[in-house]
């Protein structure tokens, strides 16, 4: 089978060739790809990517041709080899964090050191004392300790306060006993734990003298540093295959009365005083809290590129793919139509293309907000810090408005943006028809590896309660007559001023009115929810669905606003050609009007738009925008700058050689084609010949 | 690792136990599960399932414990073993088609004989002459020939007329030459072809004397009957891994001028006369056409059960899962709340539960329509048959109205129902939070194996053009003043009569008014689209998005109508207890009002409802229904009668032992836990110990 006959090798796809089509597409648009690329990511990041890419491509282990064929164990084995090599290269080339992240993006699969690097090191750094840095961090940074962050349990995910693992203080010998009282206390889903870690940062209920003080982090060794076997009274392993993310060894972990020394409790913010045996209160929970906000902001920042990867693949393939003639085409127009020319394909794909830009600019805005707040926070007086002490995010007072704003914004946007990216990827895959189902499309596995983002770092539905709490609090403040002190309170105050006059937004005529309509709809539903909670005294549980919609509405407003403001930046006309800038304006309108239409009932209900405006948006404006953006689709996706190495996709190849690549992978790379079956039901033999098993060694 | 320490074995989940919770749920509802089961499926089918289940469970090869761990080749090997065993059992027990289908449902994975049984045999039976039955069908039925149905190509899927493979008639030696002129002519996605088939029914462009007569089916042998090696000038293999469906050997196939005899062209409906070398026209394309309709009707019929499987798993798990306390709960109410009690979970899950019933009853309605039409068709005079000759479905005249109605209905419902089921499954998976990502949830792989249904047998988006064509034609007929002769023309005529009076539907008060509101919205958009096409002369391409929405609107009307009519059946009160029947009425309202709300902008625009009605539906009626249905959720899913064997799910276990099963599969069945890694980046060793490879033999 490995032998492909010459007559097969001589075959070409029927013309025109994919490469010709994409070349023509690129000729037909004046979008300045280099400029737009630089506008999106900056020169520095683009160069960094090229540098790292060159190194990775010279290493055989990063060659991806077998990735789609492997079972779980082989997949993990290869990922382990890659993780090791990547670490060696990082040391060799002296790569910093940003360069390492660039390499991870290019490799594009979760690697088994991921949680050691992402969470174990971070927890030690942020929450450890100098003594603990010496004892644990030093070894972890040298990869002598491989660690993980063991928080969620079989029985508890979102509800961290409900964790069952205990850490009981033994005042006699100044130790803690880490214990799993039930099966549901088993740590679960912990990345890098299943096979890799010899240490874990374990979140456990601190118990002193019979009293519980809530979850705290403890460093526990779980495997022997030499044999890598489990230590006595520790039981851990991999939790098994998953929907995606199978190159990661997500693990479980149980303890049977394991003693750890006093130093094991990470003590930067709270501790047990070994002399008095008393608990020392956390000095600033808001700092810890800031970590989660940072993680969520990063998710928002990445969502645009995550989606752009699927959109790039689908757009290129659907330009190359030709099917049917246009029904109304004149007779002289021979040949089949590019599928990207059908409006039903455009309406599924081009708004997603616009969404990539919307999410990307929102991510940048979110990061800027985060950094501005970090700066202000660190400038705050110690008096302010005192005020914060002991207060959770929902109860923070005026002194911490900034933090509350950042928290609400990051929760809402994390929920909306990750959801949008995940669902968009699946829409891209399905828009590609039959070939979208092939692993070689490169979109399926990318979706599967990404979709857990909807659930981790705060479940996308759960998070909307945090957003609602923040919005209701803002509305209460405005109703009390407090001066608006941020964007949220400003749009609420504006709404109150105008509510007896009503809205009159020219959504089809003016871009700023689109933003205003989104703000109006958000404010309307915030006050509506407030009325139900505060006046009608409806139960929290009965309002959850409304809270979800509220969070979505407000976050969509933020996305539209961020996109709009990016285009208003004074320097933009010096960075982009007029054609490219005009096109970005069209993408803004496409995102905003298409989203408005799909949420139209809320825009009606809040009287932010009329029925007639929505109908016009749907039947005229959006269709017109599709037509205007269509010729630039290929150049627009080129601007996202995904190397073929990263995409690992037959359908998304830059050169358009879609069919040749599909065929090559199926016929020559596919291990199943190295077996010959015995197809008859009565015979007990399954395989007459099997050369697939020794394939691994050969490649 | 295989050794689980005793202290781990002794652990139990923290209380209350899943089994206690589910028992309590079942005690708390009076739904008569046995009755409802029988109402849904009939006594006969339920007994058949139990009989077949018993046989399958006694065979080791059908034991599913390793299914989630395997790579592609192992997966396929196991599926092959199962396919053979199933065939042997079918022969041994003399199972008929229905029993075989029941077995396939229980095994729940695509088996490699699937397309031999589903399509090759059917094509030979339907399109072969008696001579061809003797030459091909006989051997195929005896599994000496294993066949496949080779239609789609690398370059062509939906557009069958564009296929590139040619079958050129050689008048000199009375043979056909089958040839693949380009790489894109390669047959692709063909089930049972990659490894299994030794014969293929190949769709190829018939060419006689330089003239093309369109695609026709030819039987071609492709592999040696003894060695199973490819025959000369044939190149075929497996197309590689896919998003799902990996137990099937979807294949590719190329021909290099392969000669086949005259008898190879399936000649029941059209043929080449070997004496005159002339083409003999098809006598009745509508019969062939009926096959596709039957396949689509089957998809509609199955969609309810397909979705119910995910809903069953999610409902049971979310009843067992407890997380957080209710914020407004009184202090004395200790412990965490069942996640199924949160309205945000209910709104995602319970409308899907209602949807299962809606789809199931619609599927039954669709099948009844199909059978009624088959009966009428066969009663038709030969004069009618003559009329049909040579006419495609879109141009059929009044004599074939029935067929057009059936075609439009089956296309629209196939598109809506498969989309709804696929998206619903993913919603179920995601509603389960973190554990939904585990393969052991049993929903992920089920979704992946099902989702191609959205694309095959007519892409869900493409199909809506067929529906629109049918609806526009119906509207033209009504406008001409023709008497309504079916439900579609009736609702259109009714709309015309009332359009100057407007609608006044009491959707919250009367069930029949809900149905009427759906009919009104559909009729409104049909006439709207007709105006744009016929009066404003808009291009077909510019209307595709509207056509899609139109098809969706009309199909949703059909679903609501079918559900409503099922509940109006005179015998129903003798079949179901009053409580159970009342609950079905509530499920009807939940499906109809929830769908209405999510499509509300179309109901506004068409003036079928007021803004205020929709708001009330959303904030009152739907929330009230969730509360009323919630206590019966477990019994309602029990009624779908899925044995644990079929579900193969930790989270969906009938007995609620969710955590025990997750833990057992992860710790004891998971091959990755039979390896010990070397975790340090500098060391070249990956695995210190690897006992996973010989696991296969052991199990």
UniProtKB/TrEMBL annotation, chains A, B:
<dbReference type="InterPro" id="IPR012258">
    <property type="entry name" value="Acyl-CoA_oxidase"/>
</dbReference>
<feature type="domain" description="Acyl-CoA oxidase C-alpha1">
    <location>
        <begin position="289"/>
        <end position="472"/>
    </location>
</feature>
<feature type="domain" description="Acyl-coenzyme A oxidase N-terminal">
    <location>
        <begin position="32"/>
        <end position="146"/>
    </location>
</feature>
<dbReference type="InterPro" id="IPR002655">
    <property type="entry name" value="Acyl-CoA_oxidase_C"/>
</dbReference>
<dbReference type="InterPro" id="IPR036250">
    <property type="entry name" value="AcylCo_DH-like_C"/>
</dbReference>
<feature type="active site" description="Proton acceptor">
    <location>
        <position position="457"/>
    </location>
</feature>
<dbReference type="GO" id="GO:0005777">
    <property type="term" value="C:peroxisome"/>
</dbReference>
<dbReference type="GO" id="GO:0055088">
    <property type="term" value="P:lipid homeostasis"/>
</dbReference>
<dbReference type="GO" id="GO:0003997">
    <property type="term" value="F:acyl-CoA oxidase activity"/>
</dbReference>
<dbReference type="GO" id="GO:0033540">
    <property type="term" value="P:fatty acid beta-oxidation using acyl-CoA oxidase"/>
</dbReference>
<feature type="region of interest" description="Disordered">
    <location>
        <begin position="379"/>
        <end position="399"/>
    </location>
</feature>
<feature type="binding site">
    <location>
        <position position="191"/>
    </location>
    <ligand>
        <name>FAD</name>
    </ligand>
</feature>
<dbReference type="InterPro" id="IPR029320">
    <property type="entry name" value="Acyl-CoA_ox_N"/>
</dbReference>
<feature type="binding site">
    <location>
        <position position="152"/>
    </location>
    <ligand>
        <name>FAD</name>
    </ligand>
</feature>
<keyword id="KW-0274">FAD</keyword>
<feature type="domain" description="Acyl-CoA oxidase C-terminal">
    <location>
        <begin position="512"/>
        <end position="679"/>
    </location>
</feature>
<keyword id="KW-0285">Flavoprotein</keyword>
<dbReference type="InterPro" id="IPR009100">
    <property type="entry name" value="AcylCoA_DH/oxidase_NM_dom_sf"/>
</dbReference>
<protein>
    <recommendedName>
        <fullName>Acyl-coenzyme A oxidase</fullName>
    </recommendedName>
</protein>
<dbReference type="Pfam" id="PF22924">
    <property type="entry name" value="ACOX_C_alpha1"/>
</dbReference>
<keyword id="KW-0276">Fatty acid metabolism</keyword>
<comment type="similarity">
    <text>Belongs to the acyl-CoA oxidase family.</text>
</comment>
<comment type="pathway">
    <text>Lipid metabolism; peroxisomal fatty acid beta-oxidation.</text>
</comment>
<dbReference type="GO" id="GO:0071949">
    <property type="term" value="F:FAD binding"/>
</dbReference>
<dbReference type="InterPro" id="IPR055060">
    <property type="entry name" value="ACOX_C_alpha1"/>
</dbReference>
<dbReference type="InterPro" id="IPR037069">
    <property type="entry name" value="AcylCoA_DH/ox_N_sf"/>
</dbReference>
<keyword id="KW-0560">Oxidoreductase</keyword>
<dbReference type="GO" id="GO:0005504">
    <property type="term" value="F:fatty acid binding"/>
</dbReference>
<dbReference type="InterPro" id="IPR046373">
    <property type="entry name" value="Acyl-CoA_Oxase/DH_mid-dom_sf"/>
</dbReference>
<dbReference type="Pfam" id="PF14749">
    <property type="entry name" value="Acyl-CoA_ox_N"/>
</dbReference>
<keyword id="KW-0443">Lipid metabolism</keyword>
<dbReference type="Pfam" id="PF01756">
    <property type="entry name" value="ACOX"/>
</dbReference>
<keyword id="KW-0576">Peroxisome</keyword>
């Amino acid at each position: 089978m490995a032998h492909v006959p010459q007559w097969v090798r001589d075959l070409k796809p029927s013309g025109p060739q994919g490469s010709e089509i994409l070349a023509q597409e690129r000729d037909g648009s004046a979008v300045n790809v280099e400029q737009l690329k630089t506008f999106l990511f900056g020169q520095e990041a683009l160069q960094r990517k090229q540098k790292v890419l060159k190194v990775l491509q010279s290493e055989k282990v990063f060659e991806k041709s077998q990735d789609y064929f492997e079972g779980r164990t082989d997949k993990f084995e290869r990922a382990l080899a890659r993780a090791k090599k990547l670490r060696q290269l990082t040391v060799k080339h002296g790569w910093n964090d940003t360069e390492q992240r660039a390499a991870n993006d290019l490799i594009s699969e979760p690697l088994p050191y991921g949680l050691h690097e992402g969470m174990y090191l971070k927890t030690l750094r942020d929450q450890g004392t100098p003594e603990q840095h010496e004892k644990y961090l030093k070894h972890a940074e040298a990869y002598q300790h491989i660690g993980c962050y063991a928080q969620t349990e079989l029985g508890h995910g979102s509800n961290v306060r409900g964790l069952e693992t205990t850490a009981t203080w033994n005042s006699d010998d100044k130790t803690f006993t880490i214990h799993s009282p039930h099966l549901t206390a088993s740590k679960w889903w912990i990345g890098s734990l299943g096979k890799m870690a010899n240490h874990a940062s374990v979140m456990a209920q601190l118990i002193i003298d019979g009293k519980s003080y809530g979850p705290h982090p403890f460093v526990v060794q779980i495997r022997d540093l030499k044999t890598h076997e489990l230590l006595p009274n520790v039981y851990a392993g991999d939790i098994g295959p998953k929907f995606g993310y199978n190159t990661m060894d997500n693990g479980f972990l149980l303890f049977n009365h394991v003693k750890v020394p006093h130093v094991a409790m990470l003590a930067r913010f709270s501790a047990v005083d070994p002399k008095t045996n008393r608990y020392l209160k956390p000095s600033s929970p808001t700092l810890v809290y800031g970590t989660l906000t940072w993680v969520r902001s990063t998710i928002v920042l990445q969502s645009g590129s995550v989606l752009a990867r699927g959109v790039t693949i689908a757009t290129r393939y659907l330009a190359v793919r030709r099917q049917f003639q246009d029904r109304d085409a004149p007779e002289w127009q021979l040949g089949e139509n590019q599928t990207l020319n059908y409006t039903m394909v455009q309406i599924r794909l081009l708004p997603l293309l616009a969404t990539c830009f919307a999410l990307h600019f929102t991510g940048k805005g979110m990061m800027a907000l985060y950094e501005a707040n970090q700066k202000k926070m660190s400038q705050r007086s110690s008096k302010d810090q005192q005020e914060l002490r002991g207060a959770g995010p929902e109860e923070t007072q005026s002194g911490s408005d900034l933090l509350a704003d950042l928290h609400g914004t990051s929760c809402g946007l994390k929920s909306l943006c990750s959801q949008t990216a995940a669902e968009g990827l699946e829409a891209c895959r399905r828009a590609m028809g039959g070939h979208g189902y092939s692993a070689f499309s490169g979109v399926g596995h990318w979706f599967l590896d990404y979709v857990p983002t909807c659930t981790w770092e705060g479940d996308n539905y759960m998070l909307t309660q945090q957003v609602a709490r923040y919005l209701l609090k803002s509305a209460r403040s405005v109703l009390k007559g407090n001066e608006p002190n941020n964007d949220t309170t400003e749009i609420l105050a504006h709404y109150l001023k105008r509510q007896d006059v009503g809205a009159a937004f020219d959504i089809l005529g003016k871009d700023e009115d689109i933003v205003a309509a989104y703000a109006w709809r958000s404010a309307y539903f915030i006050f509506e929810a407030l009325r139900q909670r505060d006046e009608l005294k409806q139960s929290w549980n009965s309002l959850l669905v409304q809270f979800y919609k509220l969070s979505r509405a407000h976050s969509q407003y933020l996305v539209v606003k961020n996109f709009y403001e990016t285009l208003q930046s004074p320097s933009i006309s010096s960075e982009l050609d007029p054609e490219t800038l005009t096109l970005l304006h069209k993408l803004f309108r496409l995102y905003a009007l298409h989203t408005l239409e799909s949420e139209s009932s809320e825009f009606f209900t809040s009287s932010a738009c009329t029925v007639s405006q929505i109908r016009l948006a749907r039947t005229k404006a959006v269709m017109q925008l599709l037509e205007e953006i269509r010729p630039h689709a290929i150049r627009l996706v080129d601007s996202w700058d995904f190397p073929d190495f990263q995409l690992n996709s037959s359908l998304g190849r830059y050169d358009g050689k879609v069919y040749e690549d599909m065929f090559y992978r199926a016929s020559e790379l596919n291990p199943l084609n190295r077996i010959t079956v015995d197809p008859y039901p009565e015979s007990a033999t399954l395989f007459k010949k099997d050369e697939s098993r020794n394939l691994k060694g050969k490649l």
